[in-house]
Amino acid sequence: MNKEILQLIYLVGSISFMIGLKMLSKPDTARKGNLIAAFGMTIAILGTIFLYEGIKISNYGWIFGGLIIGTLLGTLSAKKVKMTKMPEMVSLFNGMGGACAMLISAVEFTHLTHNHEIGALPKGHLLIIMLGLIIGSISFVGSLVAWGKLSGHLGDKTLKLQQVVNIGLLLLILGITCYTIMVGPPETITYFYAIWGLSVLYGILFVMPIGGADMPVVISLLNSFTGVAAAMGGFLYDNKVMLVGGILVGSAGTLLTLVMCKAMNRSLTNVLIGNFGGGGGNGESTTSLSGGHVREINVGDTAILLKYANNVIIVPGYGLAVAQAQHVCHELEEILEKEGVGVKYAIHPVAGRMPGHMNVLLAESNVSYDKLIEMEHINPEFSTTDVVLVVGANDVVNPAAKTDPSSPIYGMPILDVENAKNIIVMKRSMKAGYAGIENELFFQPKTSMLFGDAKGTLTKLVSEIKAL
Amino acid sequence: MNKEILQLIYLVGSISFMIGLKMLSKPDTARKGNLIAAFGMTIAILGTIFLYEGIKISNYGWIFGGLIIGTLLGTLSAKKVKMTKMPEMVSLFNGMGGACAMLISAVEFTHLTHNHEIGALPKGHLLIIMLGLIIGSISFVGSLVAWGKLSGHLGDKTLKLQQVVNIGLLLLILGITCYTIMVGPPETITYFYAIWGLSVLYGILFVMPIGGADMPVVISLLNSFTGVAAAMGGFLYDNKVMLVGGILVGSAGTLLTLVMCKAMNRSLTNVLIGNFGGGGGNGESTTSLSGGHVREINVGDTAILLKYANNVIIVPGYGLAVAQAQHVCHELEEILEKEGVGVKYAIHPVAGRMPGHMNVLLAESNVSYDKLIEMEHINPEFSTTDVVLVVGANDVVNPAAKTDPSSPIYGMPILDVENAKNIIVMKRSMKAGYAGIENELFFQPKTSMLFGDAKGTLTKLVSEIKAL
Amino acid sequence: MLEFINSNIQIIYLVILMIFVGVELIEKVPSVLHTPLMSGANAIHGVVIIGAIIIMGQAESTFAIILGFISVILGTLNVVGGFVVTDRMLEMFKKKK
Amino acid sequence: MLEFINSNIQIIYLVILMIFVGVELIEKVPSVLHTPLMSGANAIHGVVIIGAIIIMGQAESTFAIILGFISVILGTLNVVGGFVVTDRMLEMFKKKK
Ligand SMILES: NC(=O)c1ccc[n+]([C@@H]2O[C@H](COP(=O)([O-])OP(=O)(O)OC[C@H]3O[C@@H](n4cnc5c(N)ncnc54)[C@H](OP(=O)(O)O)[C@@H]3O)[C@@H](O)[C@H]2O)c1
Ligand SMILES: NC(=O)c1ccc[n+]([C@@H]2O[C@H](COP(=O)([O-])OP(=O)(O)OC[C@H]3O[C@@H](n4cnc5c(N)ncnc54)[C@H](OP(=O)(O)O)[C@@H]3O)[C@@H](O)[C@H]2O)c1
User: Following CA atoms A316, A319, A324, A326 in sequence, which dihedral angle do they give, to the nearest 10 degrees?
Assistant: First the structure.
């Protein structure tokens, strides 16, 4: 009876995951979708605790203890993390899931070796357990490394022949796994721990050489790995809700990774293996290849230009996040609106270092959602715009993406700011952005550079406009 | 061994249905998707013939005979049907599928009564067989009625209290079914045939009162019915490919039905039960409620207006299909283009009597696909358009949908033709269109009426422009 | 009820997932493709022909043979006609210069 | 191989359908929602906690109890943290005046 009810609960849980994920993919329903999925998870967990056959009464204390500790820690850290640190946080939570899958495999392996003769272990079970172990470990360690990189604790380290080493290592892991399962040698237990260790090592080596800025893509990939690891648990316990949750996330996560890569006009292989091509223009220069010159502008002139414009479009980029200038940016917008200037934000899908980075950032400073216009919709408007204010963006406004087939970002859709009447670019120097390439926009006659840290400059700008 | 291979073939077939349906929903890949689904169907059929256990050698002749006859008839009729008769054809083919499901149930029922004592028939099997019979019969007969209505053989006939009769009949059918399955009375066989007969009757009464113009919605609904009937076969034979095909079509068809209703701003219940509200404006009038007057224009003036326009948008509607004027319409377009006039077509999603009716029609006369612009994309263009030529459309250009909350079509998105500089409406009289309501557009000062059959008028228009 | 659900849990999951797939596939479809899609779906439910082949293949009595034969013909009509009509419709949509 | 496929045919259908559902659900997502979606999916794979509860619930040796306890904590962190973070992100998207 219990078993039947539990099956039903799992069914409801599975459906709630599907519906939740579906609703999460539409802006209007996203929040509700998250709650629905959370509801499904809650009943699945409670159902398992109270109805699963074979849970010993004496262990309830441990279970609830773990749940309570996890809930407290999880809620606290999730509540107090800064919005700009979200990717780190997601990565960390993902790693926890991977670790959980890994430990489950470890425990189930000891059960297996207890109940069967070494050499006569059921192959199917062993395969599932080992896959769970390998994928879970990679996801766990990889997420930690990604977290370390995003939060700046770890730099990019590339060994010579890194790729060869990685592929070799992966083949080694798979080789030992196949051998162990097929042959079932007496040293199976040793091999198991060897596989575990090698997987952990692989997790580190896999993520280590990837550029810190590519971390969101990697996190999304590791996310889908953890999904697959969870699905292994589903096979192991013949548990449908784990299977549905795991595989849904596995496939959705994989596609999301590809979508993210596409928005940056890079292939996944490119992200995982290579860094960007030449990286030539990383130094500073004040004359462009085509001979244009940089025109500087000061805060006072900018203030006048903005105040007497009819409409202004602000293009936020990674520099806005670095400078944490979102609040003063919103202040500038409000002052301009009060002066009768129409202000909008142009949101490029991959501005910043994670998808939706700019939305999250600006929403945090209470910018109205209606003012955030996505690329396709704002692009036609630039030609009728008086002033475009580029705040710490670079690649997403680089015309080379349209004009220079040899450029590494060629083909990436960009914001057509060069159609506007005036373009003001705020950044600290002439240095390149993420893609490491020079930007012709800065040398065009309509463009003026306003050098300095975004937050400082914007603050000055606000007081200047107030004073006018 | 055969059984295993067959399972694999069914798996491939199922996947090809999913992929095919997915590709069918995107314009670029639609045709390929259809072929992929057809491929999956072919291997599933051949696999069944050669690998299914228990097919008697002596029956191969019958099977291939049936397949060959069906293929010849199917291909011939599908190839020679006129494009404008497509909905009829689809309806007919759908009915064949329903009949097939119905006959399968009938035969399987005799098997069942052969192999088991009456009164001890396995309930699960019986339920599946009866559902297949009921749904299949309704779909079969309903499709035939829909076909009759679309091709004009049958008119709308409504008994008094039709809805009450229908619901009563449905309850009766379900009641007998439940009783037969639960109790297993000695008269089971009689009841079975009674259910069959009543289902056929219900199929007729269900579709008969629905307006001929609503047939596309009904066909789409019956289509999903047949899908469910096919799925019953899947349950019966524990056959996955039938299950996948049937349920996919069942759910996709249901949603498609709803989407179609939504595009017309009517609820499904509204289509199935009621006809449109008052139907007031069905008579003719030449002064509008708000006092406007009808301005007529002759062919000569229209020709001049068109020839010296910069750009013209043609709005095709149901009248174009009735008059079979698509070819001469294309001719007009070519002549105007030659004169340097830019011509586009504005395609409303529910113009005509089936979704995509206008696309199919115009494509038949070789109008380039690029010239067919969907509503959302053409609406902003009307304000910069010199002449809009409305050819046999009415409801889809009725501004009441935007302005009059009491109108039955209020809320339906329409083509904003009233923003153009000149509007010329071609129709035969002042009579109302499908929704049976008056159209303020015809009384507006910018609008001129060009009365007459669309084909005749367009032909005159073409020769007039040539002569100019 | 509970028992029924449990003994058919796999099939229930299958059916629910299929319904999901069906719904998801349609949600994105542009209105231009409604009719071809309806027609394509129509062809796909012709998979019921497999049931017809099975009863035909096992038929012994004349009754079963006749009904089986008719249903094979009807099913084939549904399948073949459906796919051919759909193909014809879609042919019209290909871009022309 | 053939044998394996046949004895697990139901599960294979299930897995394929789920992959389809997962892919379909994501295809339509606007780029603004990429991060919340990733985070929501992250919370959902926390369902692995159920495995942790099962091993914890059956644990007898100290080794199993310790590992089980840790994995319950880790799994809970994944689930709770995931959903809360997602909710916080999405809260920001609600329309403001
Ligand atoms: N969104 C994603 O999912 C994602 C993920 C991975 C990678 N990416 C990549 O990231 C790039 C995003 O483009 P983007 O235009 O937003 O950024 P970007 O091209 O990286 O440029 C950012 C610019 O901001 C300036 N900056 C940095 N700190 C600043 C500060 N405190 N004050 C003012 N300016 C500052 C920098 O110039 P100075 O040093 O001269 O100040 C830099 O040129 C794209 O290439 C994209 O492919 C995106
Ligand atoms: N597309 C679908 O899937 C679908 C399905 C079911 C219902 N509907 C409904 O059908 C309507 C479609 O709107 P619509 O604007 O295309 O058509 P409509 O509103 O039905 O109007 C068609 C007009 O064409 C004129 N007409 C008829 N024969 C003609 C001929 N031989 N020459 C010239 N004119 C002729 C008629 O006026 P005269 O009699 O004065 O000539 C009539 O007013 C909508 O209400 C929609 O909801 C659509």
Answer: -10
Q: Kindly report the number of other CB atoms within 10 A of residue A92's CB atom.
A: 24
Q: Over the stretch B314-355, which tens digit does the pLDDT of each residue have?
A: 999 989 988 889 899 999 999 999 999 999 999 988 888 777
Q: How many CB pairs under 8 A join B and D?
A: 27
Q: CA dihedral in degrees (B387, B393, B395, B398; nearest 10)? A: 10
Q: Which residue on chain C is closest to D13 by alpha carbon?
A: C14
Cβ of B213 below 6 Å from ligand 2: yes
What count of other Cβ atoms lies within 10 Å of the Cβ of residue B418? Answer: 18
The pLDDT assigned to B213 comes to 67
CA distance C72 to A375: 55
CATH code, domain carrying B455: 3.40.50.1220
From the list B11, B22, B244, the residue facing D12 with the nearest CB is B11
pTM: 0.81
Confidence (pLDDT) at B235:
94
* φ, ψ dihedrals at B423, nearest 5°: -125, 125
Answer yes or no: do A65 and A17 share one domain.
yes
- Kindly state whether residue A289 falls inside one of the protein's structural domains: no
Q: Which residue of C has its CA nearest to A238?
A: C10
Whether residues A260 and A354 share a domain: the answer is: no
| B463 shares a domain with B364 | yes
Separation of CA B398 and ligand 2 centre (Å): 12
* Phi, psi (degrees; rounded to nearest 5) at A89: -60, -50
Count of the separate structural domains present in chain B: 3
Query: Are B379 and B432 part of one and the same domain?
Result: yes
**What are the angstrom distances between the C-alpha of B253 and each of A82, B21, B34, C23, C39?**
46, 11, 16, 9, 10
Which band of pLDDT confidence, cut at 50, 70 and 90, is reported for residue A278? very low
Quickly tell me which residue has 């049931």 as its tokens.
C51
What is the edge-to-edge ordering of all strands in the sheet holding B422-427?
Answer: B372-374, B342-347, B311-316, B387-391, B422-427, B447-451
Residue A281: pLDDT above 60? Answer: no
Q: Which of B84, B285, B286, B318 to mutate to test the pocket of ligand 2 (most atoms within 8 A of CB)?
A: B318
Q: Does D32 touch chain A (CB under 8 A)?
A: yes
Are B44 and B241 in contact by the 8 Å Cβ rule? The answer is yes
Residue of A424, A201, A453, A427 lying closest to A323 (CA atoms): A453
Nearest CA distance, B320 vs chain C (angstrom): 17
Specify the 3-state DSSP secondary structure of B374: strand
Residues whose CB falls within 8 Å of the CB of residue A119, separated by 6 or more in sequence, listed in order: A184, A185, A186, A188
Residue A238 is a catalytic residue: no
Neighbours of B261 (CB within 10 A): 21
Strand order from edge to edge, sheet including A342-347: A372-374, A342-347, A311-316, A387-391, A422-427, A447-451
Residue of B nearest to D16 (CA): B15
| Domain containing residue A167 | 85-279
Ligand in nearest proximity to the CA of A452: 1
CA distance B200 to B291: 52
Do A63 and A119 fall into the same domain? no
In tens, the pLDDT along B395-429 reads 899 998 888 888 777 778 889 999 999 999 999 99
Neighbours of B372 (CB within 10 A): 19
How does the average pLDDT of chain A come out, rounded?
88
**Ligand 2 atom closest to the CA of B351, numbered from 1:** 16
Gap between the Cα atoms of A450 and A354, Å rounded: 26
From the CA of B2, how far away is ligand 2's center (Å)? Answer: 56
Q: Decide which of A32, A57, A80 is a domain's last residue.
A: A80
Q: Which of A42, A91, A94 to mutate against chain D (most D CBs within 10 Å)?
A: A94
State whether A16 and A47 are in the same domain: yes
